[in-house]
Design a protein that fits this description.
Elements (H helix, E strand, L loop, with lengths): L11 E2 L7 H14 L6 H14 L8 E2 L2 E3 L7 E11 L9 E9 L4 H14 L3 H9 L3 H10 L1
Parallel strand pairs: 1-4, 2-5, 3-5
Antiparallel strand pairs: 4-5
Helix pairs in contact: 1-2
Length: 149
Amino acid sequence: MALIDLISENVVKVPMEAATKRAAIEELVAVLVQAGKVKDKDRILEAVLKRENLGSTGLEKGIAVPHAKAEEVPSLTLAIGISFTGVDFGAIDGKPSKVFFLILAAPDQSGPHIEALAEIARMTRSETFCRLLTSAVTPKEVVQLFKEE
């Protein structure tokens, strides 16, 4: 499944309001609950925070990819958030994260989970693409950027 197949306006949050790592994760999980993609908010949040405690998923260039596997997720699920101010996510380069990809998968879906992570890594290598994402002001703009990518 291509990443674009998982992206729709109802799973994109622009702008994010979170000021902390935990709040950012909570905000993205809430987006998925509101979109009807996951039901057990607390279990999902616990799974993502447990994974994050193993090591930060804050990458370079303002990108963070919190992710987890959980029984409560029927299939690969994604939420995207854009923070205008940035959040200290413990990124490799020490800079605040502004673009967030929350990826959830069932425990038996390692293949699609890894493919999604790889596709995000490929797309975010483009500084232009990242700059366009961080300047998007609506979920519609974010979805359109992925369709054009």
